[in-house]
Amino acid sequence: MAEHYFTEEPTSAIREVSFEATVHGHQLQFVSVSGVFSFEPRIDKASLLLIGAFSPGRPDGSLLDVGCGFGPIGLCIKSVFPGLSVTMADINRRAVTYAMNNAERNHLCAETVWSDLYAGLVRRRFTDIVSNPPIAAGKAVNLRLIREAADHLEPNGSLWLTAFHNKGGGTLKKAMAEVFGNVADVVKSGGIRVYRSAKRQEISCNSAVSGG
Length: 212
Description:
The protein is α/β, with parallel strands linked by helices. The chain has five helices and nine strands. The chain has one domain (16-198): 3-Layer(aba) Sandwich (Rossmann fold). The chain has helices at 45-53, 72-80, 93-105, 139-149, 165-180, and strands at 16-23, 26-33, 62-66, 85-90, 110-114, 126-131, 153-164, 184-189, 192-198. The strands form two sheets. A seven-stranded mixed beta sheet has the order 5-4-3-6-7-9-8, sandwiched between helices. It has a two-stranded antiparallel ribbon with strand order 1-2. Strand 8 (184-189) and strand 9 (192-198) form a beta hairpin.
C-alpha cells in the first residue's frame, strides 16, 4: 500500500530539508521531512494564508492544530500570540516527532499529541481549532474533522480551515455551514480560502452532515 502524509507509521526513508520562515516579523527555523505534509523548503501557500488570517478568540485561549504536519501553523501562531496554549496533533507519528522538534528548535512551548483527528483528545476543548485539512485522505475524514470539532470547541469557539475552494474547499464550507449554522470566507487569495465557523450553541458531533 502506498504511503501518504496521513499514514500512521511511515516507513519511507527519512529525508530532511531545513528552512527559515518569517511571519509577522517573527523568524522561525523549521525542518520538514519526507512522508509528512508538506515536504518542501517552505510553508505551503494555504497554511500561510491561514496563519496570516488567524485571530484568536481570546489572547489567553487554547489552540488546537489538527493534522499539524511538521508544525508550521501551530508554531507560527504561537510565535505571534505567545499567550495562547497550543496543542498540535497528527495521526502521522513522524509528523508529531518533527512538530515537537521544531517547537524545541524555536524555543516555543507547545504540546504535541499523536491522534487520529480528535481520538487522542477525549473531553478536551479549545477556544480555536485550525487545520489545513488532509483533502487527499478523502471526504469522509474531512467531514469527520468538521463534525467532531463541535465537541472540542468551547462555547463561542471557532473552527478555521484553509483549502483551495475548487479542489474540495467548497465541500468543506458547505459542511461547516451545516454543522455550525454559519460559515464565513475570512480571506481569499489565488483560489485559496480561509473559512471560519463559530460555535454559537452546544452542538453534538452526531449532527448530520450530508455526504453528497
